[in-house]
Specification:
The protein has eleven helices and two strands. The protein is an all-alpha fold and 337 residues long. A two-stranded antiparallel sheet has the order 1-2. A hairpin with a 5-residue loop joins strand 1 and strand 2.
């Protein structure tokens, strides 16, 4: 295996993708919806910024630092781009990979290709590299257009926001790679490109939408029925009016029951969330959304947010790695006649 032959195959695949009608059509739809969402995001950002300025003006100099309102983040605008990437980005990735090998088998050009001084691993690696590069270009175009429009609108990101945009771009690329690797594996194991496309789209919707719902249902089934909130000790007089009990012992027992209920509810929610999160590890969309929402609107401590981001990114790395390894192994053993 030589790098020169791999890059030769990758360059050809890269050019074929960027001149492919299906690739350009889906990319155009992605950019169109991204621009539409970005317009809505900019309007919302300007409204939030105006509200922020009004709060600052109302606060005056007497307000302490802990009472200052939070400045709206530019990253909220990129949420609209992310929502477009979830659907159209996944379909673009599948469109890029579903016929990489199956098309060669249908046209019987794979046998002719292998007749040249080139090895199988160079073919599969070159095709994967070329497809990944095409997806990277599509992603760079989407982010570059978004940034250009923001700068035209005099919206300049801070250094922290630039870092956040970089993380969003990395997570977006790994998300696209996940479904590209899935489509590539299907292209190797199926005999026809049409079947690979249908299976790819079916698995895309299953992993992106059906699996998270299954995780929620399974979490509820495993966790069982939620604990019941204790009833407040009260009594009703002859006129039908309700009065809270004034017995100290009764109230103390009620407080103990409430504490026990809070502990049981926390255990119940943690058990349910653990099952749901475990199932969601197999969904690239849920891992992608976890990274995005943690970056844009972190609710945890910095340590918790970092743990969530890197954990979700690790899952996004494992997913395409597994499917590419499956595609590589199958292609190397495939009978080509």
């Amino acid at each position: 295996m030589t790098a020169e032959r791999i890059f030769t195959v990758a360059g050809k695949e890269f050019t074929d993708h960027l001149t492919s009608r299906k690739f350009l059509v889906i990319l155009a739809l992605l950019l169109m919806f991204a621009l539409l969402g970005m317009h809505q995001g900019i309007d919302q950002y300007n409204q939030n910024l105006e509200s922020y300025n009004q709060q600052l003006q109302a606060a005056g100099d007497s307000t302490g630092p802990g009472m200052m309102p939070d400045r709206p983040s530019i990253l909220l605008i990129f949420m609209q781009l992310v929502s477009s990437l979830v659907a159209f980005g996944g379909m673009l990735a599948i469109a890029t990979g579903f016929d990489l090998i199956s098309k060669e088998k249908e046209t019987r050009s794979l046998k002719t290709l292998l007749a040249h001084p080139i090895f199988r691993d160079e073919i599969i690696n070159g095709k994967a590299l070329g497809g990944a590069a095409a997806l990277g270009v599509a992603l760079v175009i989407a982010f570059a257009i978004t940034l250009a429009v923001l700068l035209v609108c005099s919206i300049v990101p801070t250094a922290d926001e630039v870092a956040g945009i970089g993380f969003l771009g990395l997570a977006s690329f790994m998300y696209l790679l996940a479904f590209f690797a899935l489509a590539l594996a299907l292209s190797v194991v199926t005999k026809e490109s049409g079947h690979a496309m249908v299976y790819g789209l079916a698995l895309f919707f299953a992993l992106a939408y059906v699996l998270p719902m299954f995780g929620m249902v399974l979490g509820g089934m495993v966790a069982g029925d939620p604990p019941q909130r204790p009833e407040m000790p009260a009594w009703t007089d002859a006129d039908g009016r309700t009065h809270i009990s004034g017995d100290v012992a009764v109230l103390k027992a009620y407080e103990e029951e409430c504490d026990r209920y809070d502990a049981e509810m926390k255990t119940y929610q943690n058990k349910k969330q653990f099952v749901t999160d475990t199932v969601n590890l197999f969904s690239p969309m849920m891992n992608y959304n976890a990274v995005v929402h943690t970056i844009v609107d972190p609710l945890d401590t910095p340590e918790g947010a970092a743990s969530r981001i890197w954990g979700s990114l690790a899952a996004l790395v494992v997913f395409p790695s597994v499917f590419f390894a499956a595609a590589y192994g199958k292609f190397m053993r495939m009978d080509i006649r």
